Each structure stands twice: as structure tokens, then as C-alpha cells.
């Protein structure tokens, strides 16, 4: 921990010295007036937000250029990723060391969690970057209005429509016989706005598993995603919006069946939609929304179907705000969530209320509570409080912030059903599962310089009681300990515009994790860092580079994983306002690194693409 604090302090001082001269504000560098939605499900400037939020703008996502959105998310603070053998393979995203299923993922307001999964997390590997306009990541158990757990909330928005009409056509090709193409069109007027996207990605991939010593075949992946969003302003105070999304993907992989073979295929299809109605009347804002996501998955061993499942999540939500005065607001909501997997079903009702206050445009405070009533486990109450104080300085503004939040996670339908089947088939005596409970606190300080410099340091600590895990010793089923799992550390972030051409982005995260038995959580790097920069040689030519560092992670066996660094870069050239070309290199040093033991990772790869806008 001392090493982490020393590194963080040194990095802050270095950043402050480098960005000594005043520079104009840059839209790719956060400011106190940057607006985010994820913290309280309403547009709020960072000046008033005490929670820890990271943002990826559309321009940043485009410059990075990755096909899969999860690869762009790797550049955010406190985000680590474990991938089992290439694009489209099982992928886990961890925030502050927490398991991926603890982070709620939604796209244009639609919860895209997979109820058929072991712990009902989102299948993050199937989200392409082609239609993404913005990403907001809320770190920590602060999702009061979402019912999310310890990992936070990942809020993904598709591209926003501009006045008039715009169509973008793009395509690329590269190593592993990879191709990607997308077409999206959007438009807006005073009454109507729309966005429609079609994206296709496919790759032959590479041999997924090091244990595949016989076939040694390439394990490919393909994904077709359709997304549409239509909004209509019926009156000045009444708006209706509809969202529809379909993802159809298939992947080849190794090590399936018993005994294990390497001729394996999986399919994934998700249909999701949301319909919302928003109304403003005087000092009241209210919205009513219905959303549903259907998922079906199949697995084949040597062409024979050995597993299939399907399920859905339905939500009916009412979200409102009452502006008591300019300084005092109440946010409130009701929610009914219904999960189903095959013949299993479960409902959960929730009500929440949050007070939001601002004083002298310097002090910002929130306090709220949420009550969930679960069909299987009864009522659970959770809370969140946050406070921020902004102090003006000669060369900028300083923001101090602190948050405290709690959460809970009911055992998934899969976990419950699996244990019941194990008991019925083998007679195992398994204790009934109960909900996990979590709490988290973080304290931080941010500096927003008049020169555009942004520095942030956050200390965090999160705990989970009675974490549910699979019995990897007796192989009996899902069991629950009496102890406490924890994750604590420090995040250091720096965004620096230099001269007129350069932007430097740095983040470093030190995460110390412990399970109830005292061991480190598997596949969680103790040290994570990103060093990125963007160089605009001219209005037409831009270069983006990112170096990612991971160190001090352990496997599920307790064995050490090797430290590694991965270097990526891209060049974009805008030939005309309508035509652009780009080149992207991934893992430029051809680093042979491991995220999961016995699974291969991609070597050095180059991609070339074109984008046409009209």
C-alpha cells in the first residue's frame, strides 16, 4: 500500500508540473461542467457529483478504435478484464476488484443482464463499440436508483442524433482474417429524433486453449447487432421514446464436455427493448418506462447440443423529481423487476427516495434510501449518502468528495436451481443461500485547472458479507461463507491538455483484495495503470497511443500471474469532411501475456479501415 501511495503522489506532482501553462478547455478532458447521468439518473454537472464517475466520450472511443467495447473499457481507472481466448469468448469485467456480475450494465436505459448466467451478469463480450456514443462508469456500491451491487453501474448510450440527417458507413479488415462493418443513420428536428445502426464483426480468431494440442484449430467469432432508437416530442412537456436492440452472435472455443474436447460452439441471442414516456409539469418531472430483455443461449460439443437455456428480465419503472426550490430536490421512484429462466420466475419490487441539496453553489449533499422486496428472500433496505465541496482557487477549482453506500444481491435463479438439482441427484446437504450484503466508502479530491488540467485521487474500501461461491473443493454446489470479503485501494487519475496538439491521460489503481479465508481474490491485479496520449498533428491527422500495465494478479489456484504491458496505437486521417482512413495496431510489441491460465491471448495485430460520412 505504501508503494501505491508513493506512486500516486509522485504521479500527481509530475502531472501538475507538466501542465503549468493555461490551456483552453478540451471536450475530451472532464471539467466541473461535464454533465453525467449515471450517478442519480438525471443530468448533473460533475461540480455537484460526489460519486466516482469515469466517462468515455464518442471521440475517445473512435480514436481507440477497438471492435469490442470491453477493450475500450480497459483504459478506465479500476477496470480489469479477464478474457478466455479472444474476441467473443467468455469475458469478465471487474471494477475495483469486484466480480463482473456486481456491475449493472444498461444500454439506452435497457438492463442487458443475462438472467440465465451463473450470477446474472451482462455478457459484456458481445457489446460492439460501433454504435456507442458515450460510456459512464459509476464505481462502487452507489447505485441507489438501480438496485446495483458493489461493482457499480455501467451506463452505455448510443450515438446522439444531430439536427438534420447524418449517415456513417465504416469498414475495416485485419489480422486473424477479421472484418468489421457498420452503418448508422441519425437525425433530429424539434419534434422527432432517431438513430438506427447495423453492425457486423467476424474473425477466424486463434487457438483458444493451450490445452488444445490435437486440433490446434482457430476458434472464430461473429456478431451482428441491430439497434434503433426513436424519440418524439409530443408537446413541449411530453416526450415518448422507444429503443429496440438485437444481438446475434456465435463463438467457437475449446474444452467442453466430459471428457473435454476442443470442438465447441456457442450461440447467443438477445432481444431487448424499452418504451418510455416523460412528462414535465411545473416543478415535477416524471417518467414511466417498460423494458424487456430476452436471451437464449446454446452450447454444442462436436455439433451435438449439450446445453441450452433461455430467460428474460422485465422492468416497469417510474422515476420522478420534485424541485422544492433551486437548492432542494427530491428524486423518487418505483420499480418492479421480473426474472424468468425456463419455468423459474421471481419478482422484486422496489421503492427509493433521495434528497439532493446544494448550498451557495459550493456544497452539494445527497441522502437516500431504497427498499427492495424479493419474492424469495423478503425485504432488504439499502442507503447512499454523498457530499461534495468545491473551493475556488486562483488557477482553478478544488473539489472534495465522499460517499457511503450499501447494496445487496439475492442468489441468482441459476445458483438456487443448481443446488436443488445437486441435492436431488446426489443427496448433497447444502445450506440454504441467503442474499449477500455489501457496503462501500470512498473519499477523494479533484483539481480542475483553468488550464484544462484535471487531477483526481480517490481512496476506496468495499466489503461483501456472506459471498456466494462455487465449492471448488467438494464440487457439491454453491456455498456461502460467514466471513467478509473486502477490496480497498487508491485510484489516481490525470488528464492533461498540452499545447494545442497533445492530450495525456493517466490512471493508476492499487487494489488490495482479501477473501473471507485471507487469500487474494483471483485474477484481480493489485496494480493497474494506463498511459495514453492523443496527438493532433493537424486538423486532419491524429495519433492515439495507449500503454496498459497489469501486475501482481493471482490465479484461482493461488499461483502468480505474470506482470505484463500491452501497447496499442491508432492513426486517423481525415481526407475530406466525408472520407477518413485509419490504421490500428494492437499489442504492438507482440507480448505473450496471460489473463487466464491455459488460455491464449492475441499477438501483434494490424487493422485498416475507412469511414464515410454523408
Automatic annotation (TrEMBL):
<dbReference type="GO" id="GO:0009279">
    <property type="term" value="C:cell outer membrane"/>
</dbReference>
<comment type="similarity">
    <text>Belongs to the TonB-dependent receptor family. Hemoglobin/haptoglobin binding protein subfamily.</text>
</comment>
<feature type="domain" description="TonB-dependent receptor plug">
    <location>
        <begin position="46"/>
        <end position="152"/>
    </location>
</feature>
<dbReference type="InterPro" id="IPR036942">
    <property type="entry name" value="Beta-barrel_TonB_sf"/>
</dbReference>
<dbReference type="InterPro" id="IPR037066">
    <property type="entry name" value="Plug_dom_sf"/>
</dbReference>
<dbReference type="Pfam" id="PF00593">
    <property type="entry name" value="TonB_dep_Rec_b-barrel"/>
</dbReference>
<keyword id="KW-0732">Signal</keyword>
<keyword id="KW-0675">Receptor</keyword>
<keyword id="KW-0812">Transmembrane</keyword>
<feature type="signal peptide">
    <location>
        <begin position="1"/>
        <end position="19"/>
    </location>
</feature>
<dbReference type="InterPro" id="IPR039426">
    <property type="entry name" value="TonB-dep_rcpt-like"/>
</dbReference>
<dbReference type="GO" id="GO:0015344">
    <property type="term" value="F:siderophore uptake transmembrane transporter activity"/>
</dbReference>
<keyword id="KW-1134">Transmembrane beta strand</keyword>
<protein>
    <submittedName>
        <fullName>Putative TonB-dependent receptor</fullName>
    </submittedName>
</protein>
<dbReference type="InterPro" id="IPR000531">
    <property type="entry name" value="Beta-barrel_TonB"/>
</dbReference>
<dbReference type="Pfam" id="PF07715">
    <property type="entry name" value="Plug"/>
</dbReference>
<dbReference type="InterPro" id="IPR012910">
    <property type="entry name" value="Plug_dom"/>
</dbReference>
<keyword id="KW-0813">Transport</keyword>
<feature type="domain" description="TonB-dependent receptor-like beta-barrel">
    <location>
        <begin position="182"/>
        <end position="588"/>
    </location>
</feature>
<dbReference type="GO" id="GO:0044718">
    <property type="term" value="P:siderophore transmembrane transport"/>
</dbReference>
<keyword id="KW-0798">TonB box</keyword>
<keyword id="KW-0998">Cell outer membrane</keyword>
<keyword id="KW-0472">Membrane</keyword>
Amino acid at each position: 500500500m505504501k508503494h501505491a501511495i508513493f506512486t500516486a503522489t509522485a504521479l500527481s506532482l509530475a502531472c501538475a508540473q507538466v501542465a503549468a501553462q493555461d490551456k483552453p478547455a478540451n471536450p475530451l478532458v472532464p471539467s466541473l461542467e461535464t454533465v453525467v447521468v449515471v450517478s442519480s439518473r438525471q443530468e448533473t454537472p460533475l461540480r455537484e457529483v460526489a460519486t466516482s464517475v469515469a466517462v468515455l466520450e464518442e471521440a475517445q472511443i473512435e480514436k481507440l478504435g477497438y471492435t469490442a467495447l470491453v477493450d475500450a473499457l480497459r483504459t478506465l481507472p479500476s477496470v480489469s478484464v479477464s478474457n478466455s481466448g479472444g474476441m467473443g469468448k467468455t469475458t469478465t469485467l471487474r471494477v475495483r476488484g469486484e466480480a463482473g456480475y456486481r456491475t449493472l450494465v444498461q444500454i439506452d436505459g435497457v438492463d442487458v443482464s443475462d438472467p440465465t448466467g451463473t450470477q446474472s451478469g451482462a455478457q459484456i463480450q458481445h457489446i460492439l463499440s460501433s454504435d456507442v456514443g458515450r460510456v459512464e462508469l459509476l464505481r462502487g456500491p452507489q447505485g441507489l436508483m438501480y438496485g446495483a451491487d458493489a461493482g457499480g453501474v455501467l451506463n452505455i448510450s448510443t450515438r446522439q442524433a444531430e439536427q438534420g440527417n447524418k449517415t456513417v458507413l465504416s469498414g475495416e479488415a485485419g489480422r486473424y482474417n477479421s472484418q468489421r462493418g457498420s452503418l448508422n443513420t441519425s437525425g433530429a428536428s424539434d419534434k422527432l429524433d432517431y438513430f438506427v445502426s447495423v453492425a457486423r464483426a467476424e474473425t477466424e480468431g486463434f487457438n483458444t486453449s493451450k490445452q488444445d494440442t490435437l486440433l490446434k484449430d482457430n476458434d472464430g467469432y461473429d456478431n451482428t447487432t441491430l439497434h434503433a432508437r426513436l424519440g418524439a416530442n409530443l408537446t413541449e412537456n411530453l416526450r415518448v421514446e422507444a429503443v429496440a436492440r438485437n444481438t446475434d452472435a456465435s463463438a467457437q472455443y475449446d474444452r467442453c464436455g466430459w471428457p473435454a474436447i476442443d470442438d465447441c460452439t456457442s450461440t447467443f441471442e438477445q432481444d431487448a427493448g424499452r418504451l418510455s414516456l416523460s412528462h414535465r409539469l411545473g416543478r415535477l418531472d416524471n417518467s414511466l418506462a417498460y423494458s424487456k430483455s430476452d436471451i437464449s443461449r446454446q452450447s454444442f460439443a462436436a455439433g451435438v447440443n449439450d446445453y441450452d437455456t433461455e430467460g428474460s428480465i422485465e422492468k416497469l419503472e417510474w422515476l420522478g423529481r420534485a424541485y422544492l426550490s433551486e437548492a432542494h430536490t427530491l428524486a423518487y421512484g418505483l420499480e418492479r423487476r421480473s426474472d424468468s429462466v425456463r419455468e423459474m420466475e421471481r419478482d422484486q419490487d422496489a421503492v427509493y427516495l433521495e434528497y439532493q441539496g446544494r448550498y451557495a453553489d459550493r456544497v452539494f449533499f445527497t441522502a437516500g434510501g431504497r427498499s427492495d422486496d424479493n419474492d424469495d428472500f423478503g425485504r432488504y433496505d439499502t442507503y447512499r449518502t454523498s457530499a461534495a465541496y468545491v473551493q475556488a482557487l486562483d488557477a482553478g477549482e478544488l473539489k472534495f468528495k465522499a460517499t457511503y453506500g450499501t447494496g445487496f444481491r439475492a442468489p441468482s435463479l441459476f445458483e438456487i436451481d443448481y443446488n436443488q438439482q445437486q441435492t436431488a441427484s446426489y443427496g448433497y446437504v447444502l445450506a440454504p443461500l441467503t442474499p449477500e450484503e455489501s457496503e462501500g466508502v470512498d473519499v477523494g479530491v479533484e483539481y480542475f485547472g483553468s488550464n484544462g488540467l484535471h487531477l483526481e485521487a480517490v481512496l476506496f474500501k468495499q466489503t461483501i458479507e456472506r459471498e456466494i461461491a462455487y465449492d471448488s473443493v467438494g464440487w457439491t454446489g454453491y456455498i456461502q461463507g460467514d466471513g467478509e470479503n473486502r477490496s480497498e485501494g487508491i485510484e489516481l487519475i490525470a488528464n492533461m491538455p498540452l499545447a494545442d496538439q497533445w492530450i495525456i491521460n493517466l490512471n493508476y489503481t492499487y487494489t488490495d483484495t482479501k477473501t473471507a479465508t485471507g487469500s487474494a481474490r483471483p485474477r484481480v491485479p493489485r496494480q493497474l495503470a494506463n498511459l495514453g496520449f492523443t496527438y493532433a498533428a493537424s486538423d486532419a491527422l491524429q495519433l492515439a497511443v495507449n500503454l496498459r500495465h497489469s501486475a501482481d494478479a493471482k490465479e484461482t489456484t493461488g499461483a502468480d500471474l505474470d506482470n505484463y504491458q500491452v501497447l496499442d496505437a491508432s492513426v486517423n486521417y481525415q481526407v475530406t469532411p466525408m472520407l477518413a482512413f485509419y490504421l490500428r495496431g494492437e499489442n504492438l510489441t507482440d507480448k505473450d501475456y496471460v489473463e487466464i491460465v491455459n488460455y491464449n491471448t492475441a499477438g501483434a495485430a494490424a487493422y485498416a479501415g475507412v469511414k464515410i460520412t454523408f
